[in-house]
């Protein structure tokens, strides 16, 4: 029996991440090797032609799972019937722009997209926000979609999670696949807290296995937290293929579930767990099953971790207050 295609909407489809992401979605890596997909691409009018070029290349790949590609410059149409929404397009910070200007410019994008998702997306819609500032953009979109369960809006910290796995695997001399229970807490920003106390190598705390507090504090945490800036410095452009890969991982794990004895990092709406104010979209350790996520409960948080989680969560609260002041939520 042929399955009904899953509708995946990608915004910012003509951008760098879009170019690295679309081919992986169309090849089946997002949802699975037996799930046909229909792509709906959203771009601003000036970039529609470039998106059409990408759609021509998608055609030329003859992906067996790709059942169609449509391109829009109108959010309401782009999210009609959407099952999976990948919100990648955002307004990057340009010279002379203050953080408040950036939040306001992105509010102009994520408010109408939240409204469009509310109006026309499928009942089972799952939303991943990649465009920065991702957590707060997700909060803006979610607050304009009152008919969609808040938990369906998530933001991406899987790239930070993957960066943390890579750094730890190199330091400990183990394979990435030997590491379990990595966590990124808080905001997708330089205040994020990658946690090695709950991560495990061979069933033992990764912090204990490494046994080097100075490396953890002065090397590991800043390297992971500032990796985005380091990539921009080296490449002259922000991470693209690794960001697309993390977006694929995020949705694949959400839909297909975490492995027994493991969890992942996702920025999800807080229910007050671990002292994170209710309603903030913050990164937590989460397990997923049958397309639903759950925050891992009962972890002991020592003073070192507490201070770092609080710092990142305070930044999220400040961003929330700023967009509230601007009337965006
Ligand atoms: P890019 O500038 O190459 O592409 C962005 C695209 O979005 C452009 O084609 C632009 O036309 C489009 N766009 C702008 N406004 C739009 C709108 N209203 N509707 C639809 N499309 C719109 O940028 P990129 O490198 O692809 O990065 C995209 C975003 O992802 C940036 O905000 C970047 O900071 C962020 N990012 C997040 C992470 C993460 O881990 N969460 C990692 C890397 C990059
Ligand atoms: C990243 O983590 O690579 C990006 O979010 C960096 C950025 O500021 O675009």
UniProtKB/TrEMBL annotation:
The text of the family note is: Belongs to the LDH/MDH superfamily. MDH type 2 family.
- Per UniProt, NAD(+) binds at 12-18, 106, 113, 130-132
Record field: catalytic activity: (S)-malate + NAD(+) = oxaloacetate + NADH + H(+)
PANTHER family assigned to the protein according to its UniProt record, in alphabetical order = MALATE DEHYDROGENASE
Q: Which residues bind substrate?
A: 93, 99, 132, 163
Transcription regulation recorded as keyword? no
Q: List the signal peptide residues.
A: none
Q: Which organism is it from?
A: Actinomadura yumaensis
Record-annotated Lactate/malate dehydrogenase C-terminal domain positions: 157-322
In short, the EC number is 1.1.1.37
Q: Alphabetically list the UniProt keywords.
A: NAD, Oxidoreductase, Tricarboxylic acid cycle
Q: What is this protein called?
A: Malate dehydrogenase
Q: What class of enzyme is it?
A: oxidoreductase
Kindly identify the residues recorded as the active site.
Answer: 188
Q: Which HAMAP family match?
A: Malate_dehydrog_2 (MF_01517)
Q: Which GO terms describe its molecular function?
A: L-malate dehydrogenase (NAD+) activity
């Amino acid at each position: 029996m042929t399955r009904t295609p899953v509708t995946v909407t990608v915004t910012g489809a003509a951008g760098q991440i879009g170019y690295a992401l679309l081919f992986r979605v169309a090849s089946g890596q997002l949802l699975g090797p037996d799930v046909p997909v229909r792509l709906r691409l959203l771009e601003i009018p000036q970039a529609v032609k470039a998106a059409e070029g990408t759609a021509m290349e998608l055609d030329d790949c003859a992906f067996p799972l790709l059942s169609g590609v449509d391109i829009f410059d109108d959010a309401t149409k782009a999210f009609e019937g959407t099952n999976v929404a990948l919100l990648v397009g955002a307004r990057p910070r340009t010279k002379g722009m203050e953080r408040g200007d950036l939040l306001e410019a992105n509010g102009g994008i994520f408010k109408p997209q939240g409204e469009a998702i509310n109006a026309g997306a499928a009942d089972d819609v799952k939303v991943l926000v990649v465009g920065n500032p991702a957590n707060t953009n997700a909060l803006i979109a979610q607050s304009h979609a009152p008919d969609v369960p808040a938990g369906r809006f998530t933001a991406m910290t899987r790239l930070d999670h993957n960066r943390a796995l890579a750094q730890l695997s190199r330091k400990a001399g183990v394979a990435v696949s030997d590491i379990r229970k990595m966590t990124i807490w808080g905001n997708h920003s330089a205040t994020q807290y990658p946690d090695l106390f709950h991560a495990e190598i061979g069933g033992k705390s990764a912090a204990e296995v490494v046994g080097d507090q100075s490396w953890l504090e002065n090397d590991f945490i800043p390297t992971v937290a500032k990796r985005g800036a380091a990539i921009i410095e080296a490449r002259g452009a922000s991470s693209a293929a690794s960001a697309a890969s993390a977006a694929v991982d995020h949705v694949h794990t959400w839909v297909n579930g975490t492995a027994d004895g493991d969890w992942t990092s996702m920025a999800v709406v807080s229910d007050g767990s671990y002292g994170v104010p209710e309603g903030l979209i913050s990164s937590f350790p989460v397990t997923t099953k049958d397309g639903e996520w759950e925050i891992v409960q009962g972890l002991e948080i020592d003073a070192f971790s507490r201070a770092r989680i609080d710092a990142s969560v305070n930044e999220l609260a400040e961003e929330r207050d700023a967009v509230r002041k601007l009337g965006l939520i």
